[in-house]
Each structure stands twice: as C-alpha cells, then as structure tokens.
Give the backbone structure.
Amino acid sequence: MKIFIITLTSILTLFCSQIFAQSAEEKGLEIIEKSIALDNGFVDSTVVGKMILKDKSGNESVRSFKNFIFEELDETLGDKSIIVFTEPRDVKGTSLLTHANIEPKDDDQWLYLPALKRVKRISSSNRTGKFVSSEFSYEDLSTDEPEDYNFLWLEDINCPADPSLQCHVIEATPKNKKSGYSKRVIYIDVSELRYQTVKFHNRRGDLEKELNFKSYQKYLDKFWRADLLEMKNLQTGKSTNITWENYEFQTNLSINDFNPEKLAKMAR
Amino acid sequence: MYLFKMSNFFPKLAELVIKRRIFFILIGFVIAFVLMAGAPNIKFDTDARVFFDKNNPDRIALENFEGEYSKDDNLAFVISPKNGDIFTPKNLNAIGILTEKAWLLPYVRTVYSLTNYQNSYADGDSLIVEDLITDIENISEEDANYAEEVANSRIELKNAFINSDNSISQVNILFRLPGKDAIIEIPYVMNEVEILKKEFESQFPEIELRMVGFVPLNNQYSVSGQDDTAKLTPMMILVTLIAVAIILRTIFGVGLIFIIIVLCAGSSVGALGWSGTNINNATVVAPLMVMTLAVASAVHILSSVRQTMTITPDRNEWVRRAIVDHGPAITVACLTTAIGFLSLNFSISPPFRQLGNIVFVGVIAALFYTLTMLPALISLLPLKKQNQKATMDKSMSFLAEFVIRRKNSLLAFTAALIAILVFGISKISLEDDFLRYFGPEYELRQSIDYYEDNFAGLNALEYSVNSGKENGVNDPEYLMKVESLVNFLRSQPNISSVRSYTDVVKRLNQNFNEDDESFYKVPNSELEAAQYLFLYELSLGYGLDLTDQINVDKSALRVTANVSKTTTKGFLELDKKVQSWFDENAPELSTKSTGTSQVFSKISSRDVPAMLKGTGLALIGISFIILLVIRNVKYGLMSLIPNLLPAAMAFGLWGYFTGSVTLAVSIVVAMTLGIVVDDSVHFMLKYAKARKEGKSPEDSVRQAFEKVGMALTTTTIGLFLGFCVLAQSGFAVNKDMAQLTAITVVFALLVDYLLLPPVLIWIDNFKLKRKTT
C-alpha cells in the first residue's frame, strides 16, 4: 500500500513537472502580455519627472523633465514620446523626441538644443547606454515588447519589496545580442499585474542593478502608475530615483505634436 | 663596571648552558615552533601601493583624485597582427570579438577599444554617435578603410588605440575591483584573463597578444614575490652551507648552522604571521637576510670551537671558551644589527618598516639560539675533533705583518681610494620606475618594454584642472585654457598621447555644424557647450560615460598625459614644465600632478630625509653601545670611521657603475650600519684589550688579527655571499638593496683591515711620542 502511494505520487509529480516545464515559458509570456494589455487605452499622458542621481559618497545631482507620451495603436509601431528637460538650468529646453520601433529596428530620435535653436536627428543604436548619466538606460525605461524577449515563469513568491503581496517571478532573456543584460528577473504582483521589482543581470550574468516600483496609484480608475522608481546599482553603490508627479491622461495631445518640426514648440 | 658585569655574565651563562643543555635545546625548539605556527597566516600582497603609507601625502592626493574620477585598475591587451596592419577586416573583427568578450570578465567597469570608439559625425541632417565598427561580424574592406581614415584623423586615437604605423592596437579594460580583498580579487581576474587570452590566441594565431596595465602589474607583485621565495631560499641555504663547510671544514658544523638558520628565519616569518601583516615583495627577503645574519653569529661560536679543539679534547671547555670569549662580541653585534634594522621604522614606506621589524625579531632570535642552543648542541653531539689549524689563521698573521709594514702607504692609498669612491655619490640619481621594478626575465616586463618601444607611454601625469565653479567645465574661456594646456602637453617630445574632454567637445561642435572643419574648436557659448555635453552623454554606448573625465559637479576636467621612456628625473622635470606653464598662462587653474607614476617618482626623495633621521638615531644608539663596550671615548669615536665609510664607498662605486638607484637607497645605510659595526667592534675590542695589557700598538694589531681575523673574514664572506644571493631577486628594490649591502660589507672588511690598523697605530704612536718628549 505504502509502495503504491509512493509510486503514485512520483508518477504524479513527474507528470505535473512535465506540464510545468511545458507551460513555464507560456505562462511567463502570458503574464507579461496581460500586464501590458492592462495599460492599453490610456491615449496620451503627461507627467513631470524628477531624477535624483546619487553616488556612493552621497553626492546628488538632479535632472527634471516633462514627459509627453502618445499611445500608438498600430501594433507594428511603438509609442511616441517627448522628454523636455527643465533642470539642470544650462540644458533647460533640451528635448528628446522618440518614435519607438519594434526590434530589430532602432527607434527614431530627434534632439532639440535651444542654444542652437536646431533640431537634429540623432542615432539611437546605443539603447544600452546610460540615460543622462543615470543608472537607467534607455532599455530600462522603455516598456517591454513581448517579441523582444524569451520569458520564463519561475515561481510565485512574496514580493521582495512588499512581502504582503504575492508576485510572479519571470525571467526575461533578451533576443537582441546587443542588450546590456544577459537576463532580467521581473517580479509582477499576482493581484494587479504591476511590475514590483526588476533585477538586472549584466552581460557576464552577475546581478548588477535592482529596480523597485513604489507608491502605485490608480488613474482613471484603471491605469496603475508608480510614483517612485528606485534604481540601485549594486556594484557601484550608485543609485537613481525617479519621482513622477502630476500625472495627466487624455490631454488631447495630437499625433502632430510628436512631429520633429513641432519639437521646438513643444520644448517651450 | 659594565664590563665587569659582562665578564661575569658570560661564564655563568656558559656553565648554565653546559649544565642544562637538554633544557636549552628543547626550549629553543619550543620557542621556534610556537613562533613558526604563525607562518600559515601569511598571505602575499597584490598591490603596488603597499609601498605607500596611508599618510603619504602623494597617496592621499592620488586617492582624492581617484575618488573624483576613477581608479585605473586596468588591463590592456596589446594587439600586434603579424601582417603589421590593424585595418584589415579580419584583424578588426578580432579586436571587436576581444572587446565583446572582455565585457564578460569579472568586475569590468568599461572596455575601451578601437572598435567601440564613439565615432561622432554628421550625416545630412543627422548627428550620429556610434561605435567605429558597428557590426563586427560583417566588416567589409570599405568599412576597414573607413575605420583607418577615421582613426588616423582623430587625435584621441592616435598613439592611444593605434600606434604610429597602424600595426598595433589595444583593448583597454577598466575594472572596478570591490577592494575587499585584493589578494583574492586580482588573481581571480587574472585567471579569467589568461583563459580569454588563450582562447583568443588559438582563434587568431596570426595575432600576437600581450598584456600590460595595473592589474597584471599588481598581480606581478605577488607572483614575483613567490618566485623570489622559491628561487632564493634554496640558493641561500645552499650557498651559506657550502661556504661554511669550506671555511670551517666540518660537515657537522654545517648541520648545526643549518638548524640554527632555519629556526631563526622561521621565527622571524612566524612573528610576521602572528602580527597579521601580509608579506610583500620587499619583506619576502627578510627571512633570507635573517639566515645570513644568523650565520654570522653562529660562525663565531663554531670557529672558536674549531680553534679550541686543537688545544683540548674537553667538549665542555670548547663551549665554555666560545661563550666566554665570543659571547660579548656576538651580543654586541646582534644588538647593533637589531638597532640598525629597528631604525627602518623611520621609513615612510611600510614594507621597509615591516622588513626592519622582521629582521629585528630574527636577529634577536639568532642571538638567543647561538648563545644557548648552539653551544648546547655542540657539547652534546659528537663533533669530530680536529688537530690541524685552519689555514685562514696562518694567512691572518701574514696579513697583520703586511699591514704593519706598509702602514703609511696603506694609509695614503686607502684615503685616496675612499676620496675617489665617495665622490661617485654625486653621480647617483633616484630612479623609481615602478613599471620596471621587475626584471627583464618576466613576461610582463617584456610586454611593458615592447609597449613603450612600439606604442606609447605607460607612465602618466594626471591633472585635475578645476574651473572653480559648478558646471564650470562648460565655460568657453576655461575650455580654451584647458585646450591650450593639452596642446602644450602634446608639443612635449616625451609625451605620447594626451586624453582630455576638450577633444570631444570640439568634435561635437564640428559635427553639429555639418562637419564643417572650421568648427573644430571650443564652442562659443556656455549653453552650447553644456548642451553638447548633454547630447554626448545621452548618446554614449554600453557602459561608457564621462565620469572618469569630468568630476561629479562638472567643475573640473581631467587631463592625462602619457609619458614614454623617461627617467624619474625626466618625469619630474616634465611636471615642472607644466607647472611653469600654469604660472605663465593660467595661474588660477594651477594644480599639482598626481597618478601612480607620480607617487612613485616622489617616494625615494621623501624617504631619504625620513631615513636620514632614522639612520642618525641608529648611529647614536649604536655608538652608545660601542662606547659602553669599549669604554674608551677615543676608540669609540674612531670606530665611526669604519662604520660610516663603507656605505659611502659602496654608494660611490654604485654612482660610477650604475648611477640610478631605487627606493632601496634610503634604507641601506641604516641596515648596513648595524651589520658592519660588528667587524670593527670585534677588532677594536681585541686591540683595546691588548693595549690594556701593555702591548705596543703594532703587537696589539697583531693580536687583534690573530684573535678575530678569521672570524671576521668568514662572516664577511658569508654575508657577502648571502647578499649576492638576495641580489638575484627579480625585484629591483631588493636587488639594489642586496647589491649595495654586499658591496658595503666587503668595503667594511677592507677598511677594518687596511685603514683602521694603520690609523690606530698612527694615533697611538703619536701619543706615545708626545708623552716621551
């Protein structure tokens, strides 16, 4: 009888783990897709961001900017966004327009420098570079496009940043060889499918950075936004916090506002 | 009073040793083993900076500089394709692959190479900042030609990432070592680097790969230290024992000496282990020095036994006589040597302080073992009695006669020789090229020489040029001044390349103006400069930033000038030129140079005055001991001659033949003082004793030669050979120190034999004559 139970359990375990193995990738992808889908329909948004860069010895520097995002409904294109810097003062008005594309096509980017009063198209193949010397790279700031990664659901555990929540743990391995990471481990809470924590592993595979999303708020009864993003570089001791303020949605921005010719006007 | 006590102490000690010989043998071993138990705690330091004290002002300045920018723990792969042309698709592909793989090494902060050079250019209405080689897997002939054209037109690449004839390139890897335990971290990195190197070499057999940089250099510090131990220890033991065997003609004595030196060296190393200090390249020779010095003490006992055994077969009498006759002299010799080494604590360089303390412990241990355990062993073990006088004794009386007969001409001759030699000191220059502390037998040294011969300079002058205000680096006026500093540096013949952000901002200005070359200059307005900088920082590739070029609040720029093939003197003179450039052109920006090369270039000139103080104190202490022992102010003062002259003569000889000397220069006088003093003390003691007994100065000299001549010659040969072995070290500081010491001990014997006796006879006879008239 005992032997029978053991055999049965083993068979069941084996069977279940087989199902597990088959569905781990699918489950990961499904969770990510659901999480992204929840954000559909915000149309456009504006928000004021403040980035505080801290080095190991506590020296701080600040970058402030206004961010305009226009939701692209065409599945083959990414969202459009404008970042207008307001701080530091000597770069006030410097603006970056991005038309996101799906990989492997590079994003289209234009930069407006007020000192020269000129808009320049700039190359953006360096998605892995640091964004304004912070601990964030472009790659970190853009939303995940499911096509760009292989996802793998690992387990469900308590969220590391907030143990009162349950989190799906999903490993995302970039398909693009040029990514700055070998993998990212994403923690998404089970109840609302919000990104809670992302752990970035560098090309060598060592844990390099950790990003925590804090103070989630719900806008328009539907869209969750974290007010605070805390990025910590575990290797250098440097950190960058972004606080988002004054979220506004559906502000009647038009696609024309995201035209390179309009960039100088938007920068004001 | 003191002598009386001493003359009481040693007979008592002799009786005690004979009576309790088993006890002394056992206690000797027990003490040695307890001390030696500390040895397993010892680790090898892997850091060139062990030579800099935490309080060294140059080190503090360097660390502040590194805090502001970055610490250059780097490793550069030097790439030399056998076809002599970097710009072929295949060779560029190899560089690209090496660059990408280098990113996977542990603790990597940044990798700079030709292929990931951030090439900025205008393309119609677009501004592009991208890798020089965008796709390393698909490089066409045109891509290679384009890269060649760009690389040769960028001043920041020429002589930095390609050499003058495009035959050599480099991939420079910067590490961010956690700094928790360099002893583990550096070998860990080097291990993976070696794997990568092998992999690359098998994939690209037509490319030669070499390594230079601070990480391999630091690693070399532990490697060559271990090499020294492995190579020099057996050599030292062998040479010492063979020398002792030849001189004393007793195999058994050799065995005893072996036991004693091993115990002494072991005790000193063990003490280091217990103190919790790591061993480094300079202190690694300490136990070997202890061996040599211990031999000198032990030989006195054995040669006395050797003399006594021709008179009596009574084993206990041999021991008694050895202790009574030689105990005082050995004690004095060990104490003075110990004081000399203890004075190394005045050095500003921690390894020398540690060296001094290790040898101090070893010498005290040697004193203890030679006066207790060694005689106890002799009295217990069947040392074969020999009847023949050792040949050395005969030659000593011959030498004595010669010196007495020729005293006047010897006096004149040695005085002249000394004058000529001492003049050579003026030819000595301090030379601390830390890149070349390691001998040419090491691969790293060969790579460093290859790099400097064919590529660029590795020594660097670093300046942090401060504008005086936050975001001041964007001020056009400031930028132009920095630019003219950079131009000034580039006009210096010894400077192979200069790195500065000014090149970047000039290029961006040109790029933003449709690559119009007339815009290759500092931007007109502060806002423009600030926004170019902002744009550039937005566009940099993976892992690249300007934090190692611009400080955090953007108030200062770093200017790095690589200096090739220069001496310490030339290096410091170059800095002087830069300082006067500041005074004339931009006094408000004036800043001192820093960098590892700079700290090393100053270390000798900082340590010499510090050690002068130490040497002076050692001299006072040692003279005090001599006075106590000789109890005669005249002889005491005269003993200064043979104690101070030898080191001066050795430096002079060095000045004529070698000229440049490393950091070792500062400690040699203090070190040798305590060692050479033994010879003169032994000689003076015997001379003074004979004089007291009423003998003439000539007869007293004869007696001194007869009594201690053999022992002095033997110990000098032993010390000379010992330090010759140490001079085989692959580390220049040890080598210089050992060679200088070896020369000094020989000169000391010459002075004691050829100058001191004529001087003694002359002065004493002069007095006698005056008394009689």
In short: The two ends of chain B are 34 Å apart (CA to CA). Chain B has a mean pLDDT of 87. The interface with chain A takes residues 67, 103-108, 125-130, 134, 176, 471, 474, 512, 525-528, 530-532, 534-535, 537-547, 552-553 of chain B (CB under 8 Å).
